[in-house]
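Could you join me in thinking about how sequence relates to backbone shape in a protein? Would you write everything just below, so we can both look at the same thing?
***
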Amino acid sequence: MKIVSIVFSIVFLSFSVQMNAQVKKVLADKIVGTVGDKYILKSDIDNSILDMKRQAQGQENVILPSSCQVVEQQMMRKALVLQAEKDSILVTDEEVESAIDSKIRSFLQQFGSKEVLEEVAGRSVFQLKEDFRTMIKEQKLAEEMQKKVVDKIKITPFEVRAFYNKIPSDSLPLYESEVNMAEIIVHPKANRDIEEYVIKQLSDYRRQVEAGLNKFDQLVKLYSEDPSAKDNLGQFHLNRNEKTWDPAFMAGAFRLKEGQISAPIKSKFGYHIIQLISRSGDDAVVKHILRMPPITKDEINETKHFLDSIRKEILANRMTFGEAVNKYSDDENSKFSGGAISGSDGSSYVNIDQLDKDMVILLQTLKPGDVSEPQITTDERGRQTVRLVYFRERTTPHKENLREDYNRVSQRALDEKKQKQIEAWFKEHIPNYYIFVDTEYHACPELINWSKAADAILTEKVY
């Protein structure tokens, strides 16, 4: 049996396509696979493939799984669910409910409103939640069982070397020159007079709406500095249990009554006024206007002076760069990695074209081991910020080797070991279940072991 991926990267059941299919199921739908008392419908397979095609539209070099691979993945999931139930692995109702709410919120963001979502789906939000409940619970059980199967798998340096030595020399990947960089980011703070002015503006916007002089949506269009405001008119779907939202913003939103607009609230992004559109338990729909107090040259120069003093401490060896990151950086995402700039694969070595343009320019003046002077730059939200950059190392273009690329090789070796473990697990457990595979899929190489198990069951019945 070929395992497509140890992590279930294939969407097991189409959600968005399935919404349209809920009321349009073909009467000729049939069971194409069974594991124990769990069955797979032909419509499940077709909907998954259609959904993946839809998601891949406009993307280049996307290789979609075949129907054989989708059936294999769903058979695998059913087997994992059966074993999870046998091993008494628990997924709480709260976990399932949270996942359902998250899925519904993503649909609401996609379609813009509850009314449009329900019109497209042909079902109420309540009905959609019930439709998803079993699917999401099964998916979570399968994930937990898979974690249990591979949880204790570790990799040793000897195994990493053995894995590397098996790779033909002409198959080793080639890496361009890469850099290892870190940064300390400090956001200049606006002076209090400017903050008071922004607060006064937001209070005036609130007064205009409450007095019927203007509409909230119109003020969002005119004044909000949230980059997403143009697309969503400042609307967000919140859940009280999500930790990704700014705590002050979240607290302010859930203090409101429906239709009410908050007083100006300060978050890490700036100042907001929030209007509560609707609320149901821990879920809320809000709109907001964001204003970011402008930063003057004085605040920027003050921040540069501050970071220059930190740089002197680092160069005098009175503080390491990592210690300075932990103590002073405003970038929460890099505090626990010593300020490291990471690539899309999580590696701390990145190609130069993955750096922002300001850092590329700065890199031309630095040597490995240097800490830059304070640099003014602009972050992804358009805010002016100041940073120190530490140029740790530059690699030369090279063929993959253990000295420079041990972490990459180690991760691939670990993935292969886990994949072998999960393959062995399925080979051992498939004969323990009642298996049925529809004749339409008997020629699938991915389903050979499943088909053999199904044939063995039929043979036992005959004799």
Notes: The two ends are 27 Å apart (CA to CA). The mean pLDDT is 86. The chain is about 45% helix and 15% strand.
